[in-house]
Amino acid sequence: MNLLFLHGWGFDRHLWDALRPLLPQGEHAVDDRGYFCAQHRPEITAPFLAVTHSFGTMRLLNDPPAGLTGVVAINGFSRFARSEAGPGVPRRVIAQMLAGFDADPARVLRQFRAGCGVTDAIPPIDAAMLRDDLVMLRDGTAPTPTVPVLSLEGGRDHLLDPDTRAAQFPGTPLERREHPDAGHMLPLTHSAWCAQQIGAFAGALAS
Predict the structure, then answer these.
(1) In this model, does residue 86 exceed pLDDT 90?
(2) Fewer CB within 10 Å: C terminus or N terminus of the chain?
């Protein structure tokens, strides 16, 4: 099964460096939103499975490429912010981040990444792109997926609480798997577990 990878807000294509070598052979196409470099949305041969992290799930569902047969949403969501439609991250948290962007966008990004347990130095950023996508996180709801979804979740995810995780992907053919000790960065912290789940899901879709 060919695989398309989409990272989340504040990260880049290197998020997948630990996970990809553990996955089945096949074509791997790795998207980069362009927060730190030129934007890259690769072509991929159909049929394919999308492997997404966090906001990468919303990005995929807002513009799904032809040939998509399933989604593995790792710490993923179709809606991020709390609204009348259901639970989510409090909008005041996102408003505080947006306010901070006007003064020091790199500082806001460093704080967000540190909260996820990632303290590596960051290269120069595309602040406008990051801000636009933060607005999308505040206001957006992705369309309901029309393909099967496997949701891989962290029991200690500090961004997505249990109610928020349970509310994702309504009306979708959905399987959920939770690692009780994991947080919001499953591709980095529990890559072997993710690979096992992805391999089983891809095999089931291909059978």
Answers:
(1) no
(2) C
